[in-house]
Design brief:
heterodimer, A: alpha+beta, Aldehyde Oxidoreductase, domain 4, 8-stranded mixed beta sheet, 5-stranded mixed beta sheet, 25% strand, B: alpha+beta, DNA polymerase, domain 1, 33% helix, 14% strand, globular
């Protein structure tokens, strides 16, 4: 057996096994907290529960491995990459691995959230340890049968061999393995506390990165066959016997509540079954103090149309007559913009980081540069609109659908309906996009309240218009950044943020360029509004990166320094820092910068290609991007983006590249076209004819280069998005001579002649 | 309630629906063919694309009452087992992220390649421009359409992480 990395850990603290009644072994594991002593392992896979375990591995008599994981899949690929990590250490061929989306049926949750690009980063150690433990359990069984020591056995591709050349497949020994583990657990229970503690100090052998045969390989999406043949997978595809369809009429503008409604015309629509209002349960729950951050609901009644099919429900909803009362301000974006600028120029800020003395630095400077950057609200626009299935009966609450925070959704529904958590049974479907929208469970609560009211299984379906106009938006944000220059050096940097409802929090001001400038200050303020805002892909930094990186480019121009060199010089000052708040690594940042510069041909510019460079750190990942812009028919076109990424070891390059390509194009698209405003509390757009998303012909080619290392993996679902807008803006400056301070850029490009 | 009999994926299917029911919802609710997806309901996103007499068509914009004597093909009927060249190319390139829009993308690509068996890169972009992919898997969509033209898919090795070298 090859030498492996030794890792001290306590198997019994997070892993349990059982013999399956149908044959084979079941392993349950919990990688965010220890298993309780009292946990019981099921002997049948229909009884899997995730109260005490994050996931299960079934090893069948034929050696096939099934991994049941309830981790939400929103398109970021964890349903493929997390099982890959287990399979690597378990040492089974990927063809023998089947991945099943687990049901969440739980009362004690830990982290089962898709968000923050953290799934792989958090799971890395535990997934490897679980795979390795399972392998050792199987090897132990084979060794016992042969009467040799486990260390005398070798494993490859699910086959155990001994020195004599005898071999056994996992399927051959799995039943014995389960029995041996059970005996071991019984023996363990009889030990004293001290003996147990000593027993727990076992050494587990983990593979060295150079021994990996699966991690680092291109593995296709595990749901690919179902996706390309149109099989039911998503929330909108789910059906049950007797299920009826529900559409919900919500207030057309923010700040409004329902005054009265007339259901007559709606009830005349063929196949409409019922019309009623909901809201009491939701309002009562909102009045409670223990509502957490995932609960965002307006305090209004809503009108529900129940029908035998979706089309009838949509028609019924359209036929409703309702009167709404404005109970809080009907907001206008123009007015909000003015207020935000006033706040930005005022002094009501909360300080998040302060190094040195920016005021003094500005006084002593040769020059002070100050710029304002502005962004609109953004809707998420998941392709699958919000929807959820609910069947609330006296016995249990059955919920099925796409949600990024199943734990919070289930807990809130229980609280709202005054039920026990143990009665809630939540199944997650594949999700037609998340982007942060499905972190909030409003649509789950609506579905539950509807089913509770009508006492039928229902599917709540939002239309695109519902989805876009009653959303939880990326807030409109403005930055004012000022920097002082003395003797051609940046001596001070002061960033102020004003966002609708607030944006940045304490960790973010420790990203680049924090630590690189002696006098550095970050202050934030918020403008309150009744428009609901929340997380949107790469929250906190999706606009910040554009502002800061564009600003640094302008500073380089002012100083007369190369934009790349300016970053490299700044990074020198962070090396060897003792400031533990600093989140990024100057060395890793340098590496991505050099890689992007080299691969993009930045130092050997081509005629008629205008390149914009920037480098950024967020979600624990370092990224540098170079956008190539050319002029076609008098208009600038983003042709290509070269990306250098350091995300540690790349588990699944095929999946990773998809995340990077998508993140970059998403970033380019929203910076170019994303625009969303409010007038009298009403959104300016409600569907794709009035809201522009980037399309195929506008997408740049994304060329990705990874920094090759074996460091622990970091996030990839988000970090390539924030710098994309900056890279494009900087390239556009070179192409057009004009700096872009406002998103979307298309508004500026269209409104004035910028060429010639 | 009117009754309809439509030829879908090669066989006659009977169902009851209001006459203004879009084909999309009849497929999904009455006929349990959920491959065509609802994305916008106004013909802007392409997630609901099916073939009507071989032409890529937005099923959200067609009423069931307009489809007499038409041959309708959905993603479920494009091939029996995912073996249509476009489906194979989609798998080979591993196009999907969330996957929601992909049935519509595949149906658009399949109809396009029936008309143009040797498209240029620009023709592919133009053909696929009407289908939104919110995950922005556009690079791979282009690649998969180009790959689908290759008569010998199995021999294609230029794919996947060719850019992973540092």
């Amino acid at each position: 057996m090859p030498t492996k990395i030794s890792s001290k850990f306590s198997r019994r603290s997070f892993l349990r096994t059982s013999s399956l009644a149908s044959g084979g072994m079941l392993i349950g594991f919990n990688f965010f907290s220890s298993c309780k002593d009292s946990v019981k392992m099921p002997d049948d896979i229909s009884k899997l529960n995730y109260n005490d375990f994050n996931a299960f591995i079934k090893i069948a008599n034929n050696g096939m491995v099934t991994i049941f994981s309830p981790n939400p899949e929103i398109g970021q690929g964890v349903k493929t990459s997390m099982p890959m990590i287990i399979a690597e250490e378990l040492d089974v061929p990927w063809e023998n691995v089947n991945v099943v989306q687990g049901v969440l049926d739980t009362s004690n949750y830990t982290r089962q959230v898709a968000g923050g690009s953290q799934s792989i980063r958090f799971g890395w150690d535990a997934l490897r340890q679980t795979g390795a433990s399972a392998r050792e359990i199987l090897v132990n069984a084979a060794a016992t049968r042969w009467g040799v020591k486990p260390s005398e056995c070798d494993v490859k591709n699910g086959v155990i061999s001994n020195a004599k050349g005898e071999t056994l497949g996992y399927g051959d020994v799995v039943n014995e393995a389960a029995i041996l583990e059970n005996e071991r657990a019984i023996q363990f229970a009889k030990l004293t506390k001290e003996e147990q503690s000593a027993e727990n100090e076992e050494v587990l052998r983990l593979k060295k990165p150079e021994e990996y045969t699966l991690i680092g390989k291109d593995i296709g999406n595990v749901d690919i066959d179902k996706i390309i043949t149109g099989k039911p997978l998503f929330g909108l595809d789910f059906k049950s016997e007797g299920m009826v369809y529900a559409c919900v009429l919500r207030p057309p503008a923010f700040g409004q509540i329902l005054e009265y409604y007339d259901e007559t015309a709606a009830k005349e629509v063929t196949d409409v079954i019922d019309v009623f209002k909901i809201g009491d349960k939701a309002k009562a729950m909102l009045a409670k103090e223990d509502v957490n951050w995932t609960v965002k609901l307006p305090e209004t009644d809503k009108i529900v149309v129940i029908a035998k099919n979706t089309w009838a429900a949509i028609k019924g909803k359209n036929a409703l007559k309702a009167k709404w009362k404005q109970v809080s301000k009907a907001e206008n974006s123009e007015e909000q913009d003015e207020k935000m600028l006033t706040l930005l120029n005022g002094n009501k800020f909360t300080n998040l980081r302060k190094d040195g003395d920016v005021v003094k630095a500005f006084k002593q400077a040769d020059k002070v540069i100050e710029r304002v950057f502005e962004s609109p609200f953004l809707p998420h626009n998941c392709m699958e609109p919000m929807n959820f299935y609910a069947n609330v009966t006296p016995e249990r609450i059955h919920l099925v659908g796409p949600v990024q925070t199943p734990a919070d959704a289930a807990a809130t529904v229980a609280s709202m309906l005054g039920r026990e958590m143990s009665e809630v049974h939540l199944e997650m479907t594949r999700m037609g996009g998340g982007f942060g929208r499905r972190l909030y469970g409003d649509f789950v609560y609506e579905a539950a309240e509807i089913s509770h009211t009508i006492k039928k299984p229902i599917k709540m379906i939002s239309s695109r218009e519902d989805d876009m106009t009653t959303g939880i938006y990326r807030p409109a944000i403005k930055y004012k950044i000022a920097a002082s220059i003395k003797d051609n050096t940046i001596t001070g940097y002061h960033l102020k943020e004003v966002a609708i409802g607030g944006n940045m929090y304490g960790l973010i001001p420790n990203f680049f360029p924090a630590g690189a400038i002696s006098n550095y200050q970050v202050d934030v303020a918020k403008l309150d509004s009744n428009i609901t805002v929340g997380a949107w892909r790469a929250p906190f930094t999706n606009f910040l990166a554009f502002a800061e990186q564009s600003f640094l480019d302008e500073l380089a121009e002012e100083i007369g320094k190369d934009a790349v060199q300016l970053r490299l010089d700044l990074l020198q000052k962070v090396k060897g820092t003792t400031d533990e708040r600093i989140q990024y690594s100057p060395e890793r940042m340098e590496e991505v910068i050099h890689l992007a510069v080299e691969k993009s041909g930045y130092r050997t510019p081509k005629e008629d290609v205008f390149q914009g460079f920037c480098a950024y750190y967020c979600h624990n990942t370092h990224v540098a991007e170079v956008a190539d812009v050319v002029i076609e028919s008098g208009m600038p076109v983003v042709k290509k983006v070269t990306v250098a990424v350091d995300c540690g070891i790349v588990v699944n390059p095929l999946g990773a590249l998809n995340q990077i390509e998508g993140g970059v194009i998403d970033g380019v698209g929203h910076a170019m076209y994303g625009d969303f405003k409010f007038k009298e509390g009403k959104p300016s757009s409600n569907n794709y004819n009035t809201y522009r998303l980037i399309r195929n012909g506008e997408a740049p080619k994304v060329e990705t280069h990874f920094v090759k290392n074996t460091k622990r993996p970091t996030g990839l679902g988000e970090p390539t998005l924030p710098p994309a807008g900056a890279a494009v803006a900087i390239a556009l400056k070179k192409a057009t001579g004009k700096r872009f301070y406002k998103q979307p850029f298309s508004t500026n490009l269209a409104s004035q002649s910028i060429i010639g | 309630m009117p009754k309809y009999k439509l030829k879908i994926n090669g066989s006659m299917q009977s169902f009851e629906a209001a006459e203004d029911t879009p084909l999309l919802w009849a497929l999904r609710d009455q006929l349990n063919l959920v491959g065509a997806k609802y994305g916008c309901g106004i013909g802007q996103c392409g997630a609901c694309t099916v073939h009507v007499n071989g032409i890529a068509t937005r099923s959200c914009q067609l009423k069931v009452s307009q489809l007499d004597n038409k041959e309708i093909t959905t993603i479920e009927g494009l091939s029996k087992d995912g073996s249509h060249p476009v489906q194979k190319a989609w798998k080979e390139v591993d196009v999907p992220q969330c996957g929601y829009c992909q049935a519509g993308q595949i149906m658009t690509a399949a109809a396009f390649l029936d008309q143009n068996s040797n498209p240029t890169e620009q023709e592919i972009k133009n053909a696929m421009h009407g289908n939104i992919c919110r995950c922005a898997a556009y690079n791979r969509i282009q690649k998969a359409v180009a790959l689908a033209v290759d008569p010998n898919l199995a021999n294609v090795v230029d794919r996947k992480s060719e850019n992973t070298q540092a």
